[in-house]
Structure formats: C-alpha cells, structure tokens
Design goal:
The chain is of the alpha+beta class and 616 residues long. It is built from 19 helices and 24 strands. The strands form six sheets. An eight-stranded mixed sheet has the order 7-6-5-8-3-2-9-10. A five-stranded mixed sheet has the order 11-12-15-13-14, with helices on both faces. The longest helix is centred in the C-terminal third of the chain and has 19 residues. The two termini are 42 Å apart. The chain binds adenosine-5'-diphosphate and magnesium ion. The site of magnesium ion has 5 residues, from α2.
C-alpha cells in the first residue's frame, strides 16, 4: 500500500484552530491514545513513569506506518486524516490537525517504532526537540509504539511548572478513563512505574464503566436511550441517591469523543431537578451520536469542546430522555399526589358524544380508600390505552370507576375508520393479535401478511392528530389540578407562553402568570400526566424559543409536534397486549397512519408472497 500522510496545504492548515497541544503529560497521553484508536488498534497499552514526566509510552496493534509516513508524521500539519478544508465537516477520526506528533517531538525525546502488516521489518525513528537523530530498521510486531521521554527537557521553565506526581498522574488517569470509556470494545492496559493500574478487557459500555469505577457501580446505573432525527443518545445516569459531593463521574461523548459542554451538562442536571440532595452532583455517562456535519470540533486545539448546530433540540432531547429513564426505572419519586382517579379523564373521549362531561364526580368517593399505587403515576399514556376494555393496567388507571363497564361504550376507532388503509378491514379491532418485539415494534397480522409497527413513531402520529384536532376544534379535555403547579420562568418565556396561550388552552392547558417570573398551571390536557406537565411546557418553550410560527395553523402544527414528540411512548417501554392493540387500532384510525408528523415511516408490511420468497 502506498504512503498516506500528506502535508496540509497552508489554506487548510490555517483553518485549524491554533494553539498549544501539549500542556502536561496527560496531553501526550490523550494524543497518543487517539492516534492508536485512529489506527484501528484493538489493544492499546499505556506505560507511564513518574507520572509521565520521565516516560509516556503507547503501544498499539493498529495499522502501523510505512517508513516514509513514519518520517513525515512528525512534520507540522502532516496527516492522513484530512486532505481538504471540506473534510473538517465530516470528521470520523479523533485526530485531524496533523500537529500532535510535531508538537510532542518539539519538547521531548521521542522514539517511534512502527510496522505495517505488509512490511517485513519495522522502522525506528528517534527525534529530540524537533531534531532528527536517527533512523533504523528493526524487528517489531505490527503496530506502533511511541515513547515520549523527558517531557519539556529543553524548556526547564515549563518542566518546573508541572505539578506533583500525584496530580499529574491523576490527570493521566482521567484522560485514560475518557478514552477507554468512549471505546469499550478496545482492550486497554495502564502501567505506572511498573505496576498495573488498569487491565480493561474488550466489553460493552456497562461493563467498561464497572471495570473502571468498580463493581458497586453496576447497581447505580440507570440506562438512557433515545433515538431521534437529530441525535441518538445512549448510556447511563447514576441513580440520584448515589449522587456525590464531587463532580467526578460526568462524561459526555459525542461521536465517541469525550467533550465538555456546560449547556448539555445543564440539561442533565435539569432532568435531575428535585431528585438530588443539596450540593450533590449526578453521575452520567452519555453517548451522543450525531451527524458529524452538524457539529464543529475544530474550535479548540485540544478538541474537547464542540459546537452543535442545534443545541436547543439536544438540550430538550437529553433532558426528557433522562427524565424519562429516571421515571421508568422508578427512580423519580411519583410527583403526583394521590388524587381521585375519577378526575382522570380517559383521553379518548373524543369518540363520545359531546354531552359526555369532562369531569365526573364520584359521589361514593372515599379519600381514605386505598388506591392502586399505579393510579397517579403514569397518566400520560392513555392514548394507546384508552380503547382497551380488558387490560389490567388500563383498569388500574381508572380504579375509581365504579364498574369497568362504565367505559364499555367507548367505541373502537378502527370500527369506524379502518378499511381505508387495508382492504376489508384487515386489522380487526377486537381480535387483533399483537406481539411486542424488542420493546420497540408491535407485530400484527393482516390479511395479506404481517405488519410491523414502530411503537414510538406510531404513538407520535396518534398524539399529533389528537392534539391538532383538539386545538382546531377547541375541545381538548382539561384535568383541573387540585394543587396548581408553579413554574419559575423568565419574562421572555412568560411572554412566549402568552403568545401560545390560546392554542395551549385548546389542548387543555390552563395557566396564568403569577408575578413577573412565575407561572401557575391550574389545568393540563387529559393525556398529559401531572408529573409530565412541567417538562412538557419547558420542552415547548425551548422548541419555540427560536421561532414562533406566525400563521395560526403552523403554530398549532408545531405545538402538536412538540407535544407528540415529548409524550409518545418510547422504544424500550414494555406494552401489554391491550396497550398494543389500542396502539394498532388508534394508529389505523388516524388520517395518515403511514408516517409520523416528521415524515418518517410508522410501519412496514410484509406480504405472504414476500415471506414465501424468502424461503426459496
Ligand atoms: P493527526 O492525528 O491529527 O493526523 P498526528 O500528528 O497525531 O496528527 O499524527 C500524524 C499522522 O501520523 C496521522 O495522521 C497518522 O497517519 C500517523 N500516525 C500517528 N500515530 C499513528 C499510529 N499510532 N499508528 C498509525 N499511524 C499513526
Ligand atoms: Mg493525532
């Protein structure tokens, strides 16, 4: 294979954020580990002496370099990772500046040994203070080993400036953790002064976290996962009760690169609001996968800062995903007080006649009667529960009803509307057999074969149409809150909400300003759980902050989109049979069942013929 490293032309080099790469031994560690990862190594060893002051060595089993590449790799702006300025917007590698090896070689004694698989022998190059010393042919395994000795040996002032070994080693370990957490599939070893500090086998993220932070961590982790058009979020947050006084275990990775971002950090702490003891900090290990074109990593030489095109959406997504996980794993306390379940209006009353009262009062209501613990907790998901007649969990949502048959008059939507999509009412409402696959898809049969429905997307479509309809027909059902919710908002946020007031009231919200920075919410839509109300409004604010659509229609549309996005059942959530069937029936009762409001497909079908073909 040909040589691959080139010198970047000046006009490209000039676009790269200038600045010092090497501040301390840990900076060398970071750059060398990143080079090993970019070289596709699956085993990386880090060897340290005297907290890196005497030696930092990284040995990898990656691609290695040709002799010419090894020589040129120490030149400034020498890189194999980008060619033209445009490449800066599609980065898939850790490095791209072509400056690390040059900077390191300028202030240390460096020895690099490298061999590619196709070469029989390895190249060894020695450089001191940017001066080429020596080049040899040696025997060595495939991969690269870089030794960096006596950092700042030629700049005594800088060397004296280094902190104690303890402090410098701490920095090194921090960098090692960041890189190792971002790449759990890669094996990593760390040796310091001859003893092994870490031996990390190839594993999944959870095991990697546990291997680094200790066995007890496992029980503290709550998984987070959210897939949206802008970002895929996965990872873990620590349970609130384990939050620590120090801000140690907080990690954001964007496209497998550790980054610091105070705005996103704020989104995480906002999700924990009310759950943490004073002055404690939540742990988090969050991995964001995002289109490289929508981020800029070229804003700081150490590449730990990142600029996002759409920070506001990320904020909202991250916060709601974490809130959701905390709630789902029963970590968040149920914020709802135990209320009269009769005040919970089943959402899907829309198929009822107009004379159905929004709020029923149960004359037999006895506040001392025990209610199911479930009654108040997760009120926000009625829209796929509402039409089922026999589900245990559905009934328990309305335990206050004297008789479950009270709801028997609710018609199944698909009885009225289906047939538009599938011939001859392919999905029959009563006897639909459904199956939840991977807590993500609902599989069901249709006459011609089978249908696979994405539960999150389907629910978005259902909720979207419900909200839109309520807003345009001005008949959203409101549940009155016994204890109004108080939200602290800025005056801009308050005036924004005022502009949306009419549409919001039509969905079922009722609120008024109380003072210059407080909002009092007295009513919420029937299909929003009380504990979700604050989050929904905040999400709304952040979605609308940048642009308020002018036309009434697009305002309603945007509002419905925000609401459905926030409230739709997530993938990962289990759904019982009745919920699944409701979801299927309600989906096919919508006007446009096949796509989400964001134009993504909600389901796919497979005909028997197609299945037959697969067996040929
Ligand atoms: P950058 O990583 O920004 O490209 P560096 O100065 O870190 O710049 O490295 C220069 C070039 O040297 C890289 O682009 C890569 O081609 C090569 N290189 C550096 N380290 C390794 C390694 N461990 N294995 C293989 N190639 C390497
Ligand atoms: Mg590099």
């Amino acid at each position: 294979m040909a040589d691959i490293i080139q010198l970047l032309p000046d006009h490209v080099a000039n676009q790269i954020a200038a600045g010092e790469v090497v501040q301390r031994p840990a900076s060398v560690v970071k750059e060398l580990l990143e080079n090993a990862i970019d070289a596709a190594a699956d085993h990386i060893q880090l060897i340290i002496k005297d907290a890196g002051k005497t030696l930092v060595q990284v040995v990898d089993n990656g691609t290695g370099m040709s002799t010419t590449d090894a020589r040129i790799s120490f030149e400034r702006h020498a890189t194999s990772k980008i060619r033209v300025a445009e490449d800066l917007f599609h980065l898939h590698t850790k490095g791209f500046r072509g400056e690390a090896l040059a900077s390191i070689a300028a202030i240390a004694q460096v020895e690099m040994t490298t061999r590619r698989e196709e070469d029989e022998v390895a190249t060894r190059i020695k450089i001191e203070g940017s001066d080429f010393i020596d080049q040899d042919v040696v025997a060595a395994p495939v991969g690269t080993s870089v030794l960096v000795k006596n950092l700042f040996y030629n700049i005594p002032a800088r060397r004296n400036f280094l902190k104690s070994d303890n402090v410098e080693l701490r920095h090194i370990i921090d960098e090692f953790h960041r890189v190792a957490l971002a790449h759990p599939a890669i094996r990593f070893d760390l040796f310091s002064n001859g003893s092994e500090l870490f031996k990390l086998p190839s594993s999944n993220i959870r095991q990697r976290i546990v291997n680094i932070l200790g066995g007890k961590t496992n029980e503290k982790l709550v998984p987070v996962e959210e897939e949206t058009e802008v970002v895929h979020v996965k990872g873990f947050v620590g349970k609130p009760e384990f939050a620590r006084k120090t801000r140690g275990e907080q990690f954001f990775f964007v496209n497998d690169r550790f980054v610091k971002n105070s705005y996103l950090h704020h989104a995480v702490t906002a999700a924990f609001e009310g759950l943490l003891k004073d002055k404690t900090h939540p742990s988090y290990f969050l991995f964001l996968e995002i289109d490289p074109e929508s981020i800029d990593i070229n804003i700081h030489p150490t590449k730990t800062e990142v600029k996002f095109d759409d920070e506001h959406s990320l904020y909202a997504i991250l916060r709601s995903a974490i809130k959701h996980s905390l709630g789902q794993f029963n970590v968040a306390p149920v914020l709802d007080f135990d209320r009269d379940a009769n005040l919970d209006t089943p959402y899907d009353y829309r198929s009822q006649q107009a004379n159905m009262p929004a709020i029923e009062v149960d004359a037999d209501f006895n506040p001392f009667r025990e209610e199911s613990a479930q009654s108040g907790s997760r009120a926000g998901r009625e829209s796929y529960r509402s039409t089922s007649k026999s589900s245990g969990s559905w009934e328990s949502l309305y335990v206050g009803a004297k008789n479950p048959d009270d709801f028997a008059t609710i018609e199944l939507e698909s009885e009225e509307v289906s047939g538009q999509l599938f011939d001859e009412k392919e999905i029959s409402s009563q006897n639909t057999v459904t199956y939840q696959l991977n807590r993500k898809y609902i599989v069901s049969t249709i006459k011609s074969g089978m249908v696979i429905i994405d539960q999150h997307r389907a629910h978005q479509r259902i909720l979207y149409e419900e909200f839109l309809k309520n807003m345009t027909l001005k008949k959203g059902i409101s549940q009155q809150l016994l204890f109004p919710l108080e939200l602290n908002l800025s005056s801009t946020e308050l005036s924004l909400l005022n502009e949306l007031k009419e549409s919001l009231e039509n969905t079922g919200f009722a609120f008024s300003a109380s003072g210059s920075d407080r909002l009092q919410v007295t009513g919420i839509p029937a299909n929003v759980g009380e504990s979700e109300a604050g989050m929904v409004l905040e999400q709304l604010l952040s979605d609308f902050q940048n642009e308020i659509p002018d036309a009434a229609y697009s305002q309603a549309d945007k509002l419905a989109k925000t609401l459905c996005k926030t409230l739709a059942v997530r993938s990962g959530e289990p759904m019982n049979d009745a919920e699944q069937q409701s979801l299927v029936n309600n989906l096919f009762a919508t006007k446009e069942p096949s796509v989400t409001p964001f134009n993504r497909p909600t389901f796919i079908t497979m005909t028997v013929e197609e299945i037959d073909k697969k067996f040929i």
